[in-house]
Batch of 2 targets.
Target 1
Amino acid sequence: MKIRITDRAKITPRDQVLALVFSIMAGLFVIGLIFLAFGVNPVFAITKIFAGSFGSLYGFKETITKAIPLILIGVGLTIAFRAKFWNIGAESQLLMGAIFGTWVGLNWGPHLPAPVIIPLMFLAGFIGGAIWGLIPAFFKVKFAINEVISTLMMNYICAEFLTFLIVGPWKGKTKFGFPYTDDLPESAILGLISGSRIHYVTLILAVLTVVILGMIVYKTRFGYEVRVIGENPEAARYAGIDFFRTTLIIMAISGGVAGLAGVGEVAGIHHYLSYPASISSGYGFTAIIVAWLAKLNPFFVIVSGIFFAGILVGGDAIQISLGLPAATVEIFNGTLLVFLIMGDYFLKHKISIER
Amino acid sequence: MEDIIVSVAQRTLIAGTPLLLGTTGEVICERSGILNLGVEGVMAIGAVAAFIVTFYTQNPWLGIMAAIAAGMMISIIHAFASVSLQSNQVVSGLALTMLGLGISSLAGKPYVGKALDEKMGTLAIPFLSDIPILGRIFFDQTPFFYMAIVLALAAWFILSYTELGIKIRSTGENPKATEAQGVNVSLIRYGCIIVGGGFSGMAGANLSISYSKLWIEGMTAGRGWIVVALTIFALWNPMRAVVGAFLFGGIFVLQYLLQPLGISPNFLAMLPYIGTLLVLLMIGIGDSKKLNAPAMLGESYKRGER
């Protein structure tokens, strides 16, 4: 008996869906085993997670709230990952956007009406995120510095910088000594869908970003250039694609949209800057899997973003009800990512047993 | 004055030791052509495994062995994904980091706030530790320090001068030609990833039972990522890893030295990360072609493919 592995000739959409569903089921099974190994009832934990996020109206509203940053960041990452630029720094691109947006809101907000200040804040956030994304992009194209390392180091640097701001020069006078900035003025605060924490301006912005970036990827020359750079940088050079320019644009977009998410979190949810870990609960990292689950298709990011937002919300639920640490959710993320990789393999290869 | 110098030097070596252990492992792994971004997660697993076992047995050596075994086991995931399934090494490495951080925090939850009775003590080497100044700096250290140095030298010797080392390096340079010579490329890569995982696990043990005597969630604090950067800094050579790791250990110590001068602690905490960027920048500004990186680093190898 022999196992034979051959390339699958044709992959139908039905195969893709099957592979995806099977990967997620297998992933959940293994997650269950991990829970079991640590004495947590797996059925209870996993049911609790999905009941907490999709099982009630309240939970679902929370899921959408958390899906907003995941979709924004995730869609930016699809572009970067298509070009094989491994942007692991979305977490700090979000924070930089939050810093820039908050500065504009705090300083200009008191003098400007909402229809002026809110677009200005998002613009500032985009610029902040884009700058933070451009630095590693520049390092890569100019000095061949591995972007995985540089974007990660930028994460730590930005988190420390933000903490410096809130305990130092930006510390609010109305916050009783807590390390927070003052509240944003009324005009700089985003409206919510009533009875929820869904800041709809950012939600609309996220969906628009998906549509625009989706069109760019599939319909424009630039989208084609991104694909070529990712698949074959040598060929890109012969095709007359400017590697330098294209990489910078890609990272300005990827960082910029993460910056938008940062503005949304501050202006929509917190209303002031506080510790990095409370502004973003690891959205920049979760969005990596969001992009990967979406097969780097900007449109699919909406679905995968909502799915992982659900896991985050459910993760909070089991944290409270089972007393598990916050990082438990990482087990979900890591395991599902491993199984998605495996699913890809079985999708591309046919495995048969011969006698 | 002498005491201050000795104390700074000692602390530099202490802070650099986990970095050296991790970097040696990552050099071995990357030499075989596999990029492993899971170091941060594997370190966390090692830290928690060492802490738990030491907590119950009171025997730090059993703790270290548990950490090595746990690091090796979890690394099999990356080996399977990147070698057997030829998947993207960046993605599967990230998955390993997430998994490692998640599992370690779940496993360590009951031990948060508990402490070992004592840290793993220093081991003064007879006679050598009596040398003025240098003896106290180099020969009155924790066992981790000696092991890190010996293992780095051993890795350097094996990679440079033995048949196994040649096989590992040529696997990273040209897996197809290596396979044609009758070497099992997959086996070499599996081996290097798993051994590398053992090193990362040991680095984690260093943090939880010797550097401190606690398990704290997130105690690896980005050291795994610094290791990945140090591997580039060391130009994939364990001897240079020794220099790099202690240079970075020095940066960690600098944080505490500069704090009394009134510099914001947040800016000081940035130092290791800015240092990493600067080092990469210095290497990058030089001729990056002379870097001597394994030619097939990060590329999957499929048997029988062109």
Target 2
Amino acid sequence: MTITANAQQQQKIDAYLDRLRRRLRGFDPSAVTEIVKELRSHILDKAAQSVNVTGYTNREPMPAAIDAALAALGSPEELADQYVTDNLLARAEFSRSPLWVLRSLFRWGSLSAVGFFVLLGSLVGYFFGVVFMLVAVAKLFHPQTAGWWKIPSGNGDFELSFRLGFGSVPAGGREILGWWIIPIGWLCGGALVMLTTYVAVWFVRQYRQTLMLPRR
Amino acid sequence: MKEPNVLDSTAADKWEVQLRKGCLELAILAALWDGPRYGLEILRRLEIDSALIVSEGTVYPLLSRLKALGMVSSEWVESDGGHPRKYYALTSDGKRKALEMATIWVRFSSSMSKLLAPLGKGD
């Protein structure tokens, strides 16, 4: 049975798919076209199925059948979230490269509050990981000033500071690790970056699970 | 006061949901075992053959992920419905993965069945 949607039904489908398309910004445009085309096909098939079941013989599906097909798909925003997180997980399966993960997290973070907080936490983790490694490298070029410093801040207090070695030796400061900052910086920095990636992917996987809503 | 050891209906529902989610990937691969299918056909197959009824929006992103992972391939085919349909088929990697998962599933469910057999007989 050939099935078509009239102008009003078509508008409903277009509005739904436009909302989905907006949430998929940043995706490869050809992938978005493919997703939209597949969902449009699904909506028409689903509506046609309802029409067949109810014995409705007109070529145009009933408005109610289109509404039901759209409702069964869930909100376009939630559907887009599933595409984004699934895409991220698929990439993470191939490569645990922090750059890939971070790039995907930026996309997710721009789409949902949960994604934003996972992105924020990941940025903090990656920042400290990179700082550790940068200080380890800087030590080679600025052996006197780069490193992890304990610097008095008055009233008997002190602060701990990672220094890349630019500028002079801080007054009253004492370097804590010396040359050990090189292996320790690389090890701790690398471990922190790996841990951040692992935790970020774990969060994405958990969130993705909550989006998979079985019908009863 | 509620007894702490009793699995109430809400907790049982949640547990069942987690169980269903856990086997959805295997179910989709299995639904494609005997030939290519499009999204709605896969959903119907899951409903009819496994009582695994999932929200329709869940299956398409998952198919997209399986495709990105090389487990399935896809092809657009013109339909008698007047619009093209995207058919999915298992790749050789997808078949291998489905067999691996099915083996684990059968082993696990068979050992669980042995363990659970006394429960079926009641107190």
